Amino acid sequence: MSSNLLLRNARIGLGGPLRDILITGGRVAAVRESVTDHLGEAVDLEGATVLPGLWDAHVHSAQWAQARRRIDLSGARSAREAADLMAANLPPSGEVIMGYGFRDALWPDEPDRGLLPEARPVVLISNDLHTVWFSGAALALVGLGGHPTGVLHEAEGYHALVALPAPPAELLDRWVATSTGAAAARGVTGMLDFELADNVTDWLRRHREQEVAVRVACSIPRAGLDEAIARGLRTGDVVAGSGGLLEVGPVKMFVDGSLNTRTAYCDDPYPGSGGRGRLETPLAELAEVMALAARHGLHPAVHAIGDLATSIALDAFERVGCPGRIEHAQLVRPADFGRFARPGLIAGVQPAHAPDDREVADTHWHGRTGRAYAYADLLAAGATLEIGSDAPVAPLDPWDGIASAVTRTDDERPPWHPEQAVPLRDALAAAARGRSTVRAGDPADLMILARDPSLLTPEELRRPEVLGTLMDGRWTHRPPLRLTKRPVD
Fold first, then answer.
1. Fewer CB within 10 Å of terminal CB in the chain, N or C?
2. Which InterPro entries match (predicted)?
3. Model-level pTM?
4. DSSP H helical segments within 247-397, as ranges?
């Protein structure tokens, strides 16, 4: 922690005034025209913009750290092409080789174990994390050698991945810590980790043994609810021994699957299949588990993507009457938008998915996409939004989500349902846990930008120049030769 730091000539917020920012003991002590009573480091920002640090409100930390080291399958246009990419990158040894990022919703052929080398342990993970595709040797490693296709969905796939030989904990911790440094370079000061693990224990170990650059809210998998209750964990509490940098997060529960896997639970059937997706947790069971968590001070975070799943999640919150989160809410019934305005409910959304999924949504949710990824309608209805990436489904970079929320595109294509675009100020607040400007008394979790984001083009908004990031009053990103003199916008 930096005990005393003065940032001079900082542009406060979007189009705001020039002020000095005094940081003491990890908090913003003062924001005023001139600070003279100062001892310690002083940095002249010369008109650079200071905003609250960003939070990525939906991350799978270990999967993101590993995905950065896996074979990229995002460009595969068929199952055969994905299999060929894996075959071209097989190492000489017999270790498990993993690929990540395939999207099979529009492929002309089907994934199958027969396309992969039978004797080599090969695993392919879909971009949405809801489908995994195993070779014969990889199936044998997890006790599923007789599986007919090697293609596993939802919980079956999650359990199979967990059963694979894992990297040594020390190595994985180092990869995760490195990824937090990369996040800090994008202005990130915190994240909500939804890894399917004992996140409280894992992050305590990382903070002891690694250089971690962000705060972490540590979610609890539904399977770990009883243990969390026994440990006395409560959502929002600071984790003992973390120096105030870790907090207990919500309990993750699933109503349905995903769009790309066609397991999102919807009112209308998917074209050509007759199926409406997969219901993972019926309403009565969901409400019962939510009520158990709430009685012990643990807030639920309910995964719901299809419109029927989202409605079930809202029904459960109304039945239990507790605070919590609905994660994704990608397709919403027209009558359900207003139900998101209930006190204590947060809609955890991932705007970068909208341009990624638009073709799949146009195909499988045809005629309903006006209420898909409908962030403007959610805001207008009074919902509280928090932006996440769902990394590794999208990069751990909130600017990707901010720009997608504002522009409704991420390339040369015209905006997709531009009526659902949100103002930049709202997008920034949703990516910073509701903080929209820098105020005295706030934690000193700040980012310093070369230019005011409101002056940037859409492409520049996706990749702004981050001159520095402070978390708890200490520098977590401060490149050499930064903060040099520049014109004031």
1. C
2. Amidohydro_3, Metal-dep_hydrolase_composite, Metal_Hydrolase
3. 0.90
4. 283-295, 307-320, 353-364, 375-380
